[in-house]
Amino acid sequence: MSLFNIAAAAHLAGSVVLALFFLLLARHDPRPYLRAWTAAWIAQVLSLAALLVSNLRGWHASLSLYLFLEAGHGLLIVAAAQNYATGQGPRRSHAAAVMALAVWSGIAPFLFSGDNALHAAQHAILALAYLSAAAILWPLREPAGMGLRLTTNVLGLLGLVYVQHAAAFAWTERAEATLVPYLEVAPFSILLLQMLLGLGMVLAVMEAAQWALATTNEQLREAERRLKALAQTDPLTGCFNRRVFRELVDDVRARSGSEAGVVTLLDMDGLKAINDRHGHTAGDDAIRSMAEAIRSRTRTTDVIVRWGGDEFVVVIPGASSAEGEGRRAQIMAAIIEAGLSASAGLAVYGPDRDIMAAVQEADEAMYQAKAARRDAAV
Fold first, then answer.
1. Which residues contact 95 (CB under 8 A, 6 or more apart)?
2. What are the residue boundaries of the structural domains of the chain, listed by start?
């Protein structure tokens, strides 16, 4: 057996290892580009087997099969790169390319008088495929991990090696020279690079799986944040609901030795008249407007709770009674600017006064203010 056939057999053995490894990997990963890479290595195994049969038996059918499968290997490499880069599956251009390869593999053994010219043409096709795949993946290599960078670099290097082999085979054909030693051991260099390519592909698959997992985890965390926000906020106004207020009460009570502040309870005036005259949609708009007015005069440390219906509770931590009166006046002014009217009550909580007792006191003060306004109007 010639050195060229021995090298081709070694290349076949290495390709079998790559194909089996990718077959096992593809069983647990459904991504299309991984299946395309797996098919590419299987095609190379079959093509090298057909080449050995053609060299040993001299069968044109085996040679045509080699040409088709080896070029198909290159086409699958390009298709996998396109899928990795764009997420798109097979295209019509791929079917056209398969048809062209079938025609090429059928007539190529009869177009070239010598084996060197035929190998030169075949290596030129593979060079074009590898360089095209490298060009497709090149824009993605910088933000990606080491696996994709290694894959892209080795694809480009393999493309250049195949260009060199094509030129060498073409030169030996034109010069009617014998194959130089490096051409006889060419399969060894290609096998080494393809082993590096397989490693890069595996790393790229693992990195893609890690990115997908990280993305999924981030989406889950975002969904959790949204669910938590939905559970804590009132859907009409965006203010906190009573559940949050209960948690606040527990927190204040736990720090009863140092926590102090002011509670303001506000109740919109005339909501029933708005609903009766303009409908409940207008009433909901009025409630939202009141919430926005309150929010415009509060700090990030304040807590705004939709207490129920058209009632709101504003907790102002750390404020004294005088400060609370000033803040209440600012909120009432904002409500008036919004074209609405409301009644408000205020109470202080602290180490000597439970916050729920302060809410009750503010509620009573609010009703007194509402009654006083009603009497004044009468």
1. none
2. 3-223, 242-377
**CA 338, CA 332: separation in Å to the nearest integer?**
10
Q: Measured between alpha carbons, how far is 116 from 180 in angstroms, rounded to an integer?
A: 12
Q: What is the CATH number of domain 242-377?
A: 3.30.70.270
Q: What is the CATH number of domain 3-223?
A: 1.20.1070
Give every CB contact of residue 162 below 8 A, 6+ residues apart in sequence. 123, 124, 126, 127, 130, 190
Which of the four pLDDT bands, split at 50, 70 and 90, describes residue 168? confident
Q: For the chain, list the strands marked E by DSSP.
A: 261-268, 303-308, 311-317, 342-349
Q: What's this model's pTM, rounded to 2 decimal places?
A: 0.58
Q: Do residues 304 and 291 touch, judged by C-beta distance below 8 A? A: yes
Furthest C-alpha separation in the chain: 118
Contacts of 3 (CB under 8 A, 6+ apart): 184, 185
CA atoms within 13 Å, Cβ hemisphere of 100 = 9
| Structure confidence by residue, pLDDT tens digits, 143-158 | 667 888 899 999 999 9
Highest mean pLDDT among 15-24, 25-34, 283-292: 283-292
Distances (CA, A) of 137 to 143, 161, 376: 11, 18, 78
User: What does 300-333 look like in DSSP terms, one character per residue?
Assistant: TTSEEEEEETTEEEEEEET--HHHHHHHHHHHHH
Cα 158 from Cα 11, distance rounded (Å): 14
